[in-house]
Amino acid sequence: MENNNKAEAQLDSLSKLPDHLLLNILERVETLDALRTCILSKRMLKLPPMLSLLDIDIGSLARYLKPDVDTFNRIFQYNIAVAATTDKILGARNPEIPIRELRVRFCLRHDECLSISQAVARTMATHKLDVAEFVVLTEKTSWRCTQHDLLSFAKRFNTWFGDCPVVFAGLTHLWLRNLRFGELDIHNILNTCKRLESLRLTHCDAGVRSVLQVQHAQLVALQIDYGEFEAIQLNCLPKLQRVKYVGWSYQEDPLIFGSVPQLSKLILGNVGVSSTSNIQLSQLLANVPWITDLRLDFQSEKIWVLPECPKLLAPVLGKLQIVNLDNLPQGCNIDWTMFILEAASSLKELCITVWDHWCEMETNKDVRRKKGYCEKANVEWQPSAVHFKHKNLVKLTICGFQPEENFVRYIRRVMEIAVNMKEISLYDWQVCEDCGDLDPNIKVCPSRYPRTTEEKDMLREEITKELPMASPAVIHFRS
């Protein structure tokens, strides 16, 4: 009773706020939560049709509907509710009140897809949507999908796509999963979705070893997660700024850059095994020497980038300002990362994360051996210039720092060459709750990260000892 009274008092005080403040608050939460709040107050009932940000998510509905049926039927019931909610919310809109963003996340079932598309298409005809996004799921997760499932889901998508070209022509963002398309299907999608600014494909392809040819006048962001593409050819994308590719399957360079004059950020992530070919950045980035932000994720396994000499790399890394090297395996030397400093003269920020993320790694020894996972080994690298100095690097961040020679030596070397260093931030290992449920045979060493002020001061002195230009004050131990 006391909790109910408290909730009613909070709702009463909330409903007394001016409409513009209420709308600002309601647009910060999921649309279904906003609707539930408005239903509880007579004064706020008028607000839902005035929301300019709409996010209708099948995952949100799952919290409110509790059918005691099997999983597939439960998904179908949620999907029907998403379609009905979308139709009701959009049908009540005043055409004079703009919608800035509309996002609908739902499952790939023809009847509901058709209903949602028709509701959104009617809204597009009367409103200018700055952002219109579809996030399309399948009833099976990626790891459960067979080849037959992928083909069946793609056929289902193509039927829907053919029935609703108008709504796809108005989308700005599209995220698809678990689809094995025909040779020209993705081309047709890009050709129809003329407003598209962001495309994400997760476990999608056009067949084993297919090559994806991408050209689009408006696309700004492209993300590919897994799938069986042999390569992604970015032919002509005049507005493309960001590319992310995680989990390519073959040994050739995963990306081929054509005309992408605005590309500034590149993210690559993969699990390296013994057969994984090392990427040579001097070749991969030869056509895009203007990239300013580079992130490489090694997923706690083999390092799959080849340290190259500055003469080869400097022409392609000359504009680079931010580099993130994520999930380097623990216990291995990180000196090799200096090759980026030697080649990227404009670099301002370098972030290195060292982490064995056990719950996402393959831990079975037999499986590791069968699939060619590597034992931990240091990357061979030799410095190219003894008296090299870097004038632009101002920030170094290391996540997974331990008071070991590997890290101390590395930080000393960076402080020695980075003459304008302003901040060195050192973080402990990342903590993952799921890693606590590991096989007890996996031995995880306890962290030795400094905790006390005395330990931190001693490390600062050790790191800066006999470095006359290095200030201990720039070293920060972050909690």
Largest sheet: 14 strands, parallel
Helix coverage percent: 25-40%
Q: Tally of extended strands?
A: 17
Overall mean pLDDT: 90
Strand order of the largest sheet: 1-2-3-4-5-7-9-11-12-13-14-15-16-17
* Number of helical segments with 4 or more residues: 15
Strand content: 15-25%
Cα Rg: 26 Å
Low-confidence stretches: 1-5
Commentary on this structure:
With 479 residues, this protein is an alpha/beta fold. It has helices spanning 2-15, 19-26, 31-39, 58-64, 71-91, 110-126, 147-163, 165-169, 185-192, 281-284, 310-317, 338-343, 365-371, 405-417, 453-464, and strands spanning 53-57, 101-107, 131-137, 173-180, 198-205, 210-215, 221-225, 229-236, 242-246, 255-259, 265-269, 293-297, 322-328, 349-354, 395-399, 423-427, 475-478. It has a domain at 299-359 and 367-373 and 392-431 and 448-466 and 475-479. The protein has a 14-stranded parallel sheet with strand order 1-2-3-4-5-7-9-11-12-13-14-15-16-17.
Layout of strands and helices, then pairs:
Elements (H helix, E strand, L loop, with lengths): L1 H14 L3 H8 L4 H9 L13 E5 H7 L6 H21 L9 E7 L2 H17 L4 E7 L9 H17 L1 H5 L3 E8 L4 H8 L5 E8 L4 E6 L5 E5 L3 E8 L5 E5 L8 E5 L5 E5 L11 H4 L8 E5 L12 H8 L4 E7 L9 H6 L5 E6 L10 H7 L23 E5 L5 H13 L5 E5 L25 H12 L10 E4 L1
Protein name: F-box domain-containing protein
InterPro entries: F-box-like_dom_sf, F-box_dom, F-box_plant, LRR_At1g61320_AtMIF1, LRR_dom_sf
Organism: Triticum aestivum (Wheat)
